[in-house]
Amino acid sequence: MLTLSRRVWNHVYVNTYQDVTALSAGVVRRSTVLADGRDLIYYDDPDTSLGGERAIDARELDPRPATSSMRQDILTGDWITVAANRQNRVMMPGAEADPLAPQSPTNPSEVPSRYDVAVFENKSPAFGPALNEAIGGAPEAINPTRGLDDLAALGLGRSRSAVGRCEVVCFSPEPSGSFGTQSVTRARTVIEAWADRTAALSALPGVEQVFPFENRGEAIGVTLPHPHGQIYAYPYITPRTTRVLESIDRTAPDMFQRILEFEQRSERVVLAGEHWSAFVPFAARWPIEVHLMPHRHVADFAETSAAERDELAHLYLRLLRGVDALYETPTPYIAAWHQAPVHVGRDTVRLHLQLTSPRRAADKMKFLAGSEAAMWAWATEVTPEQGAARLRDALQTVEL
Predict the structure, then answer these.
(1) Active site residue: 228, 275, 291, 297, which one?
(2) What are the residues whose beta carbons fall under 8 Å from the beta carbon of 21, sequence distance 6 or more?
(3) Helix (H) or strand (E) holding 337
(4) Taking CA atoms, which of 59, 137, 149, 153 is between 20 and 30 Å from 178?
(5) Which residues share a beta bridge with 364?
(6) Are β-strands 159-161 and 79-82 bridged in parallel, bridged antiparallel, or unpaired?
(7) Contacting residues for 369 by C-beta, under 8 A, at least 6 apart
(8) Which residues pair with 43 in a beta bridge?
(9) Any residues with CB less than 8 A from the CB of 289 and at least 6 apart, and which?
């Protein structure tokens, strides 16, 4: 069992090696490291009640796991990560053993200090570093990718090291909740963290795409009830985005602008602001599906303006609370922020949210079975127009 050194609790030994940077909207970033060398970044709210000092991580930790491998499926060209280290990750612990809560004398969690928003490298990642600094810089990624052309080639028995990064984004130190339960100020801090981490992860060698997302609810497969999301930095362009790039090639470079204008003229719009619009897409797959898109072209969060981030904090919270207002109990969902790849499609693929839920009634879920799971051939039980009308009604009951 992990134990904490007593020195953490005497408030004398604090981490004096923080890299402190002021970001937009009054958010302050404080960068440090955990006991095994993983990065930890605190993002302080503009109205934070926290002091500037942060306790050190005095745990005695095992070395990081070796970087996972990935294998190519020759039938589709997809790369499948084999991450055996994730098999034994924490599953629905009680609040007293919450690994995302601030450390206490009885809970040697992942975050040493009280925080507003905290981001750290996942202890059980699907993608890992090229060098494992925790064991003296010994090479772990012995078979890294060799560029996009290499990844696109097909062959039997092809494998590569899964070089990249997986990060956890803690929205709050509280043990329960979701993004939608946060304040507008806290939502703005998380958005600033997404933008900051998108820029940092995009600069890492071998990273081809950065994906912030939130899984919410046990029906989705969530293993921790603590309010949090994740960011994956992939060593390849994901299959979904590859299909989008192909569609752009087959239609027009301004495909996303055309989608936005098409949807804005429809009855499927559910929310609209100066900089963002939310709509149920024309060909929605899921019983609940909403897309949220900026009005101008931006490739990722790092390219959004301060005004766009400010408005997003309000609109996104209202959207999530509207989804929860559809039923008497919270709705499970995946909130997927699609961003352009790091090196291609920057002028054509637009940042946007795709929020989806399998909930098709108060007590019914849509399960992916034969046709959808095996053949990727979808059928939906709720028309997009019906879904938009129900969500607009629910949004009328929401206040921030």
Answers:
(1) 228
(2) 28, 29, 31
(3) strand 333-338
(4) 59
(5) 361
(6) unpaired
(7) none
(8) 29, 117
(9) 280, 281, 354, 355, 356, 357, 384, 387
pTM equals 0.93
DSSP 50-111: --S--B------PPPPPPPEEEE-TTT--EEEE-GGGTT---S--GGG-TTSBPBTTB--SB
Distance CA 56, CA 11 (A): 10
The predicted-structure confidence for 38-75, as pLDDT tens digits, reads as follows: 999 999 999 999 999 999 999 999 888 888 999 999 99
If you search the block for the tokens 């930890």, which residue do you land on? 40
Q: Please confirm, yes or no, whether 228 is among the known catalytic residues.
A: yes
Residue that the structure tokens 């879904």 belong to: 387
**CA atoms in the 13 A half-sphere facing the CB of 1:** 6
Half-sphere exposure of 81 (CA within 13 A, CB side): 26
6-236 sits in which CATH class? Answer: alpha beta
Tokens of 330: 């919270």
d(CA 57, CA 15): 8
Of the candidates 50, 51, 44, the one whose C-alpha atom is nearest the C-alpha of residue 26 is 44
Please name the residue that has the structure tokens 């969690």: 109
Interatomic CA distance for residues 24 and 309, integer angstroms: 10
**Closest to 210 (Cα-Cα) out of 155, 262, 167:** 167
Question: Per residue in 94-142, pLDDT tens?
Answer: 778 899 999 999 999 999 999 999 999 999 899 998 876 555 554 455 6
- The Cα–Cα gap between 106 and 90 comes to 17
Q: Which of 233, 226, 227 is nearest to 212 (CA)?
A: 233
Neighbours of 186 (CB within 10 A): 21
C-beta pairs of 252-255 under 8 Å, 24+ apart in sequence:
253/347, 253/348, 254/348, 255/348
Q: Which SS3 state, helix, strand or coil, does residue 400 take?
A: coil
Check if 6-236 and 240-395 are the same fold: yes
Single out the residue of 116, 170, 179 nearest to residue 321, CA to CA. 179
Number of H helices, E strands in the chain: 7, 19
Domain boundaries, the chain: 6-236, 240-395
197 within 8 A of 167, measured Cβ to Cβ: yes
